[in-house]
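Why predict the complex rather than its parts? Because the way molecules touch one another can change local conformation, and only a joint prediction can capture that. The input here totals 450 residues.
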Amino acid sequence: MAQVNVPVVRNILQANERIAAENRKRFDEAGMYVINVMSSPGAGKTSLLEKTIDGLAGRVKMAVIEGDIQSSYDAERIQRKGVQAVQINTDGGCHLDGNMIQIAMDSLDLDGVDLLIIENVGNLVCPAEFNLGEHDKVMILSVAEGDDKPLKYPLMFQLSSVLLVNKIDLLPYIDCSIETIRERAHQLNGTQQVFEVSCRTGEGLEAWFAWLENKIREQRKARAE
Amino acid sequence: MAQVNVPVVRNILQANERIAAENRKRFDEAGMYVINVMSSPGAGKTSLLEKTIDGLAGRVKMAVIEGDIQSSYDAERIQRKGVQAVQINTDGGCHLDGNMIQIAMDSLDLDGVDLLIIENVGNLVCPAEFNLGEHDKVMILSVAEGDDKPLKYPLMFQLSSVLLVNKIDLLPYIDCSIETIRERAHQLNGTQQVFEVSCRTGEGLEAWFAWLENKIREQRKARAE
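Output of the joint prediction:
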């Protein structure tokens, strides 16, 4: 069965790479910085988006594409923050792909937008395999998931420029070592930027905001040149 | 792209159903009760297995099939408990399928085994779509993932006979309502058995053990008849 499936999967991935490259061109022409936020279910993707909207308010114009199998719950959370958001429902699909992003972009007014955040389906496996044209993949790991996750889901760690270790306020109540996460993630990806944060208490988020604003500034500069 | 993929996916699912039915026949002939344990990464599948091994020690003969993308970390945890375990590495694959179980069974001595536990890849989406021949699908939801999960990952809730709501010792420190989880899960699956547990403190596990032993007893009875 695996053999039968391989060529099909390869064709799908190649088609996706072509579409992702088109998306990337469009992002760059607009001078818009784009991140693809991925994690397990419930690691805090939407909470991070809410905090990031608050943290960059008044300085950065944002838009959000929400990916979920079903429901528009997350897009509604973002819209309540006054940021335009469109919801993709994959209807059973376990990841977003480049084509979905192309369609979703048509529902957004991207004029003057500095930062587009794509929130992927909650899944630590499949979303890593599909480029969307984003400039950076950003992953979140909740400390409640444990420090063995880099061993078991290596691709996501290898491909993500940023690792946000979230829910650090829970550390006193669980068996999880941030040092172990850092060591194991570093073995997979030596250039990965790691931030220890709590979206609940706000701890550590300023460093993430600063990293993000620097990236947005660089992309704005490229547009101006 | 989705259209191109649909017939291939359908064929794969049909082939899998056929193999799953063969597995089921083999399980029943051996009088062995089999569960397929699924959850997001880090919700506590392996911890539940460790606790279940301790809880049923001396009364039930068990074997375990571990599914992970990479590493043999989980099978080693089980073997340290003195239970035979075989590790499947899916090498990137996001779920187990019937064929993998058939191959893994050949590495186990299943003579006299009452309970076979299959621990699936950590993923709240794809594993639900592939029957392995199991008698019951058992899902774990960590309260740290939040009470909106039934809205966003409905298929897993619809198909699982049992929902173990784990890590209830964290409830004082997070924003999550067990009542909301129960209500939303019930809307998707009115016959689902729900257990509130903490694998860390042991709270609530006795009810789960009793449920499991009852199932094993029924299957033994069927074998004897």
